[in-house]
Amino acid sequence: MTAGRLTVAQALVRALAAQWTEVAGERRRVFAGVWAIFGHGNVAALGEALYEARAELPTLRAHNEQAMGHAAIAYAKATCRRRMMACTTSIGPGATNLATAAAVAHVNRLPVLLLPGDVFATRRPDPVLQQLEDFGDGLVTANDCLRPLSRYFDRITRPEQLVPAFQRAMQVLTDPAACGPVTLALCQDVQAEACDWPASLFAERVWNPRRTPPAREELARAAAMVRSARQPLVVCGGGVLYSEGAAQLREFCDRHGIPVGETQAGKSALPASHPLNLGAIGVTGTAAANALAGEADVILAVGTRLQDFTTGSASLFRAPNRQIVALNVQLLDAHKHGAVPLLADAREGLRELGAALGAWRVPDAWTRRAQEERSRWLGAAASFTAPVTAGLPSDAQVIGAVQKAARASDILVAAAGGLPGELHKHWQAEQPGGYHLEYGYSCMGYEIAGALGVKLAHPDREVIAMVGDGSYLMLNSEIATSIQLGAKLTIVLLDNGGFGCIERLQHSVGSASFNNLQGSGRGLNFVAHARGLGALASQVSLGELGGALAAAREAERTTVIVIETDPAASTPAGGYWWDVAVPEVSRRPEVQAARERYLAARAERERQ
Question: Are 366 and 412 found together in one domain?
Answer without folding.
Answer: no
